[in-house]
Structures are given as structure tokens and as C-alpha cells.
Amino acid sequence: MASISRFVIMVSEAPYASLKPYTALRYAASARKRGLETRIIFIADGIFCVKRGVGRGSQTVGDFEAKVQGLMKEGIHVQACSAPMRLYALKEEDLIEGVTVAEDVIAHTLDEQTKVIWL
Fold first, then answer.
1. pLDDT value, residue 107
2. Strand order of the sheet with strand 6-11?
3. Average pLDDT over every residue of 92-119
4. Separation of alpha carbons 68 and 107, rounded Å
5. Burial class (CB in 10 A: 0-12, 13-18, 19+), 83
6. In the chain, N or C terminus with fewer CB closer than 10 Å?
7. Is 53 exposed, middle or buried (0-12, 13-18, 19+ CB in 10 A)?
8. Phi then psi for 67, rounded to 5 degrees?
9. Domain regions of the chain by residue span
10. CA angle centred on 15, ends 13 and 21, rounded to 5°
């Protein structure tokens, strides 16, 4: 069995639908601290997690945008899937600064050295 060197987290829920997007951020931080190349990919309704301004001023769950920016500073790759962006007519400039658009999401999940979890 190959050792794991990459960790990918797929997030498909909107930021206020559940705490899963916040759990994804915690998993990502933990994986990165363990030296794994770490990537979070927001798919389906999860793309609203990386829309500019999400969570600003929240009294309950906190500033999601600031948390995402903090993880990117730690070297975690954050991406939004292009398919739901087209569906919801979102543009790259609608995303948190530094978030990139993933055209081929599945390509990040298809090798033995990558561990993938879905939230």
C-alpha cells in the first residue's frame, strides 16, 4: 500500500446548512500540520462557502472568509468547482481572494497517494 502524501476534502454543503464546512477547515489544518499536501475543493452548494464576505459579522460560526484566508496562508490549496459556478452564474472575482477555480475536480482524487474525504 502506498503512503499517503496528499489529502483532499470535498465540501458540498452551503456554509449555513451545517457545520460540515467548518469541520472541513479543521481537518485541513490538521492534515497540513502533519505535512500532507492539502486541498479543499468546494463543490455543489459548497461553493457558497468561498463567496466573498461569507460569515463576516457572524455571531455564531465566525468569519468563514477569514478562516479560509488563514488556511491559504498555511499553504492549503482552496478551490471552487467550475460546474456549480456556471450554474449559479458566479465569477472568479466573486470568490474569496486566493481561491482558484477547479475545472477537473476528479483529477485531484484519482491516485493511491491521495486520501479523499467528502463532507
1. 67
2. 100-102, 77-81, 37-42, 6-11, 114-118
3. 79
4. 22
5. middle
6. N
7. exposed
8. -65, -45
9. 6-118
10. 65
- pTM score, two decimals? 0.87
Amino acid found at 92: E
Could you tell me what percent of the chain has a pLDDT over 70? 82
- Find the range with the poorest average confidence among 9-18, 27-36, 39-48, 102-111: 102-111
- Say if CB 27 and CB 9 are below 8 A apart: yes
What does the radius of gyration of the chain's CA atoms come to, in whole angstroms?
14
Local confidence band at 1 (pLDDT 50, 70, 90 cut-offs): very low
Entry field: residues in the chain: 119
Distance between CA atoms of 62 and 108, rounded to whole angstroms? 29
